[in-house]
Design goal:
Elements (H helix, E strand, L loop, with lengths): L10 H11 L9 H13 L3 E4 L5 E5 L11 E6 L21 E4 L2 E4 L6 H15 L8 E6 L7 H4 L10 E4 L7 E6 L1 E10 L2 E2 L5 E8 L4 E2 L11 H15 L4 E7 L5 E2 L3 E7 L4 H18 L7 E6 L6 E2 L1 H13 L3 E5 L7 E13 L2 E10 L2 H18 L2 E4 L13 H14 L4 E5 L5 H7 L4 E4 L4 E2 L7 E3 H19 L7
Parallel strand pairs: 3-6, 3-7, 7-23, 8-22
Antiparallel strand pairs: 1-2, 2-6, 4-5, 5-25, 9-20, 9-21, 10-17, 11-15, 11-16, 12-14, 13-15, 18-19, 19-20, 24-25
Helix pairs in contact: 1-3, 5-6, 5-7, 7-8, 9-11
């Protein structure tokens, strides 16, 4: 066992999480981990059911004497978001995640940790081995590709599961029970770029770096800086002050569901304007740090590069920057029903130049379907006015809260009995697979819970050690209570 997790409780959960970290499993590249999970379960004598999409369901028989209890589904997703710090040489397709302990937290070395949702999957797998666990029949449902389009939940074959009580273990705040989530969609925009020959001026790469980033659903309300929006604002400031500034390249962000931490552009300018540009950047950096107070390491810098072979025409550069400035990014509306919950948001997620087009991905979320459509159309109007071709993705449904859910009421009682106070019951602005699974199975009774996971979808991701044990104890209490007949279906 790794020294990092030595002595941590529950030992079985941490053992499985360590094994998961050792096998690369980024979104759409989970095959090796899927094979390992299936093989491990079969070696232990459990039945494994797979569907054509790639999802796995492991049937775990009941503790003797509890065979007639209702089946409980333990659900989590196998894939992780692959983000790393600038300069890291980590290869997510081949290298294991290197865990380290930082006081009360477990984190990774310069990369995302994958506690989202590796801890949930590890908890489900630990239920195969825990001889002291009292439970009825279990189905361990491990879905694929949640982070990059919810492909697993969308393609879930109903035949591989039979239970109608589901514990989703993909939430990230200790002491919270989630009963709803936002739906989401995406706007893809392609802006044609016209080029002209460079004028022989000085070439520099403009770099926005050092931002915190994070989950564009669960952390959008923290008002962290978006590197792409900051890049666009910086380019406008430079263009307004420096004559003959040209734009040659744009790129930023790395995942549709992560707030962009880095972005860059290649620009050219007369050599005599370099000092002026550096002064503008120094002033802007101070202003941005004052605006985005949490992003204390925010940095604007210029790096010498080779002269580009071509530069944007002035018209194309203007359209590109104005379009990026026009897209809404951040919280758009707060919930009218649940205090403190974001209702609608948009994240300007990624930009890149491909085949003489600026490709932009906006990720939009809302718990209100009409509000979701409205913001998608608003951003689409901005893109169309700039001359871009656009496509709105089908997205995924939200999960509407049921405050009288029997499994919610049972977990609420169990939590209160163990800890002496009630859990907070709420919805989450991030997407959960519960929305899609609930749409497929209208009689599925669901609740979502998990340990404290900070900064998911960024290299600062970490999981709180003691909260993992509390999460596990609530899971054990729930399974035992269902097995012993305390679950009362409405």
């Amino acid at each position: 066992m790794s020294d990092v997790i030595s002595g941590l409780k529950p030992a079985l959960l941490w053992k499985y999480f360590s094994a998961i970290c050792a096998i690369p499993h980024g979104s759409k590249k989970e095959a090796a981990l899927c094979d390992w999970i299936s093989r491990t379960a079969k070696e232990k004598g459990f039945t494994v059911r797979n569907d054509a999409t790639g999802n796995i369901c492991i049937a775990v028989p009941a503790t003797p004497g509890y065979e007639n209890a209702p089946t409980v589904i333990l659900q989590g997703h196998i894939d992780m978001v692959c983000e790393k710090r600038a300069g890291s040489r980590h290869d997510f397709e081949h290298d294991p995640i290197v865990m380290q302990r930082d006081g009360e937290w477990i984190k990774a070395t310069d990369t995302t940790l994958g506690a989202d949702n590796g801890i949930g999957v590890a908890a489900a797998l630990a239920c195969m081995d825990d001889k002291e666990l009292i439970h009825g029949p279990l189905e361990l449902l491990c879905t694929i590709d949640e982070e990059n389009g919810l492909t697993g939940a969308m393609g879930l074959d109903p035949a591989i599961i039979s239970g109608r009580i589901m514990l989703n273990m993909d939430s990230e705040e200790d002491g919270m029970l989630y009963v709803g989530c936002a739906g989401g969609g995406a706007l893809l925009s392609d802006l044609p770029i016209k080029y002209e020959n460079p004028d022989g001026n000085l070439a520099r790469k403009l770099i926005v770096s050092g931002l915190l980033g994070g989950h564009s659903g669960g952390e959008i309300h923290l008002n962290r800086g978006n590197a792409i929006k900051i890049l666009a604002r910086t380019l406008k400031a430079l263009h307004d002050s420096i004559r003959d500034l040209k734009l040659a390249d744009l790129r930023g962000g790395s995942a549709h569901n992560a707030i962009p931490r880095d972005a860059e552009a290649v620009i050219t300018m007369p050599a005599v304007s370099l000092l002026q540009a550096e002064d503008i950047l120094a002033d802007l950096e101070a202003r941005f740090r004052a605006e985005f107070k949490l992003d204390t390491a925010l940095k604007l810098s210029l790096e010498a590069v080779n002269a580009p072979a071509k530069v944007f025409s002035d018209d194309s550069a203007g359209r590109a920057v104005q379009m990026l400035l026009g897209f809404h990014s951040g919280v758009f509306a707060m919930s009218r029903d649940i205090s403190g919950l974001v209702e609608t948001s948009n994240s300007l997620a990624t930009i890149s130049i491909r085949e003489d087009r600026l490709h932009v991905h906006n990720s939009t979320r809302s718990s209100q379907p009409d509000a979701l459509k409205g913001l998608l159309h608003q951003n689409q109007a901005v893109a169309m006015l700039a001359g871009a071709e656009t496509e709105i993705s089908d997205g995924y449904p939200g999960w509407q809260p049921n405050m009288q859910s029997p499994i919610l009421l049972l977990q609420k009682k169990l939590y209160s009995n163990r800890y002496g106070h009630e859990p907070k019951i709420t919805a989450i602005h991030a997407g959960l697979e519960c929305g899609l699974i609930g749409e497929r199975f209208s009689d599925m009774d669901m609740v979502s819970f998990g340990p404290d996971i900070r900064n998911p979808h960024s290299p600062d991701e970490c999981v709180h050690i003691e909260s993992v044990e509390r999460f596990w104890l609530l899971l054990k209490d729930t399974l035992e209570a269902v097995a012993k007949g305390e679950y009362q279906k409405a």
